[in-house]
Amino acid sequence: MKKFNIRKVLDGLKEQASSSASSGQSGTQENNLMQETLQSENFQLCKTVRHGFPYQPSSMAHDPVQKILAIGTQSGALRLFGRPGVECYCQHESGAAVISLQFLINEGALVSALADDSVHLWNLRQKRPAILHSLKFNRERITFVHLPFQSKWLYIGTEKGNIHIVNVESFTLSGYVIMWNKAIELSSKAHPGPVVHISDNPMDEGKLIIGYESGIVVLWDLKSKKADYRYTYDEAIHSVAWHHEGKQFICSHSDGTLTIWNIKGQGKPFQTITPHGKQPKDGKKPEPCKPILKVEYKTTRLGDPFMILSGGLSYDTVGRRPCLTVMHGKSTAVLEMDYPIVDFLTLCETPYPNDFQEPYAVVVLLEKDLVVIDLAQNGYPIFENPYPLTIHESPVTCCEYYADCPVDLIPALYSVGSRQKRQGYSKKEWPISGGNWGLGTQSYPEIIITGHADGTVKFWDASAIMLQVLYKLKTAKVFEKSRNNKEEKQNTEIVDEDPFAIQIMAWCPESRMLCVAGVSANLIIYRFSKQEITTEVVQLLEVRLQYEVNDMESPPEGGGGGDRDLPTPGAASPSPQTTGPPTHPSTSSNSSDGVRDNVPCLKVRSTPLKQSPGYQVDLVVQLVWVSGEPPQQITSLALNSSYGLIVFGNSNGLAVVDYLQKTVLLNLGTVELYGSNDPYQRQPRSPRKTRQPSGGNGKDCYPVTDLPPSRYLGVFVKRDVLFFPAKMSRKLSLPTELKPDLDHRDNSFSRSRSSSVTSIDKEAREAITSFHFCETFARKGDSTITPCLYVGTSLGTVLAVALNLPPAGEQRLLQPVIVLPSGTLGRLKGSILRMAFLDNTGTFLPPAFELWYEPNAVGADSEERDKARKRRPVSVSPSTSQELQESQYAVVCSEKQAKVIALPSQNCIFKHSITETSFVLRADVVQMNIGNCVACFCANGHIMTLSLLNAKVRLKVSRLKVIFLDTATRTFCFTNLGQAMYLTSPTEIQRITYSQETCENLQEMLGELFTPVETPEAPNRGFFKGLFGGGATSLDREELFGEMQAGKASRGLAQHIPGPQGLEGMKGAASGVVADLARARIALDERGQKLGELDERTAAMLASADSFGKHAHDMMLKCKDKKWYQF
Prior knowledge:
By secondary structure, the chain is an alpha+beta fold. The strands form 17 sheets. The chain has a five-stranded antiparallel β-sheet with strand order 6-7-8-9-63.
């Protein structure tokens, strides 16, 4: 049993009481100086818009009049697309897969059928569509849904082979039911299978064709309630399509054949086609092919019809990609797709099925892409897709989000990115052009940057809740292409797949400097240029960053920032830094026993590199193997364009790089930052304990041969990075597919991080987790501010590093930069995530930055560049003339706590415990319209904002629903003006806002899907067809399916669920009235046409009667005076 020590308890109480008293006095004084501007009513959380390709799509529909597209997914989501920039996201509460979608064409409504046998009616006449009615089937499974054009009666086919009819306005079942046993032959004893197709004859609405899976097709007479014809084929049916004249239909089968049938010839098919089958010479049946999953039959007025089908390839085409086949006349075009085909639709000029269709495009929904093919041009080119559906082109590994960027940044990126566009697209405009843009008031530029597994970096214009790709950077071009030398790869690479994957990005929008860190422990620094250059030799720095633990005891309590023994700036650590020259010959070496040393994970290309306008490589920094140990992946990164410095860290330590002079300024282990005042006891572990498994990221100073391999198998996830033990297996997996063990992660940081801690787990390694450049006080009690770098660690310590910079201009390139560790600012619970600094009035102090200039300028432009270099960097610093005791405040946020510390006294003004049961995954200091705050996203789904002045909670929203937690954890970003984003699925970006002002204006910013459009006129039947018949025959479905004649449906068959009432319900009801008025107008037009024909016939009869009367009158006058005997 552990011994109880009352003295330690009393000492702790005294210390806590004294600290709270001093904090209270200081807090009272600071409240008089700083005025809080942000209140709880300034914050509100809501989702704004979702971008990207719908994850796992399952169905699709198109409104040919409104010109909008709907896509359903396996998770019950609906994505609606109009013109570029008009998108909408909806979600079914059940989360069941969407198996079918049907538009009420030009009526602003959509019917969705789900895999849980429910049917829903969506109102699209509002900016955020809502469900008006739902119908849940209890006894039968839904397999097919069909809604005829300009009809309010929905046909629903089931797995049992029955067909039920639903009134879409009231969402009630009709008593009219087509039973499977009445549809098939009475002599047939076998069940025909589920219903796979329902459609009415284009020329006769009273005739319904029903396709059963077993190969039986039935032509059903709705009025007489019996089957007129039955068509039987040996192979299973997948789809059926009509010829527009209603005299023929075509079926696709499971053996890769197409059968064309005349409706009055039920014996054999009129024609059988095997599009991809080999035709034997002896006249035998072709070899079977893969099933044709769908076929569409579209006619043209002046040419041959189109038959478009998916599937049907021969079985011997092993490895061939999925194809869409277009058969037009005698030509057959096979269009290969990159992914499997989910569904396709043919876009036609008319919505009427009884007219020439005139197809002009095909929309193909793939598993991971949306393709639109132009049928009107030779070669069938595709349209250039204007939607942001290529986010997942390579898996996203990290994201950054920037709001209120410089106004000239987006045009600059667009100008260089427009040269990267592919050629060969269709010259026509994008055919899905419905809806209207919103009237948003947000005018500030927003940019999203995504890093990908293949090493690409994409810049997106995210202004005004839209998303458009601006520029694409390929970082893998810097390195040599990997050869198939497995032995060499095993010796150098530290990841199995995607060695070029982007892990962290640092970007300065003002200077346009970019730095990316890859999973192979490499850094690439880019400059933005509008001119093309050729780099003969890529400049390279190789850095040895090794973790060493010396035999040292921790000092007594305290010792945060006093004078102590510090390493010499830029001095070598126990593993000295290697500053490679700006050339490629590596200093790699192998010891006699084959141990890798001074070898980077990737090899930088040695041939000249042609760099197009845009981001161009300025410097490559690589961590190298040290004595057989692979370099640890980079966990934190920061860039400052004003100082010309890059700093990065991992579980070994940190390194500061001067990218102007191409040198390494500082290379220290984390322990060496503390000097002699290290509060933790770090001793080498006893050799007798080496067989125990590691619980953290430890390492000791014993040789590799003394430790078994099983000692280095621990891995844990933190935010969007991975920490690995030093001597673990060289093959590591990319963090994109790992899922964090939240419970274990939380427990690992549940230990106390107070200043009285004198020892830690001997196996734990202190990793660098965050950086912040600023102009502040380097040490406790300083009277002047200097450029500084503040460092946060995984054990909750904040350390200061002073920077002594030469004057700007030529001297900056010639004189060295002095870097000196300066002490400890404070300690918090959990890893340090974010730091920020305020002046004495509570105003946020952003890091200094340099304005962009053209780095490759010549002539007069070169003089402008030199002037820009000599200008002092832009920075915001407090006035040195103010006679205040505290002139700055540091805000530090960790996984567990947030603190406000006064400078230069380093007194804690405020402290707030963010969470006790979870931990913070992402924290950012953001600027709102009227103040600043710290925004946090926790592992339990909570989002909260904290005041920068007193660390008080201003907003707390519990349980943001995140399905893909690992993806959201890796990509969650906060930015200024109340905006945030994360990847809600591997293919979609979800944007949210926590600003009350944005939430109030969101309705105006959203686009409208439905716009008032006149329905095209019905095709002219002609005089003779109207007089003698032969045109389309209408059907009074209301009389046939209504309750008066059909009766009521069975009560237990389906359950009606009304949609939400209130204003949205009233809007839906209004849309129903509009639909009724539209149908009434159409009926009046038809009645007027018939009355016109009646008038013509009446006029002809009147003219004939007048002629007869005239002849009769003439005859009367002639015979008037004659006697009877004169006749």
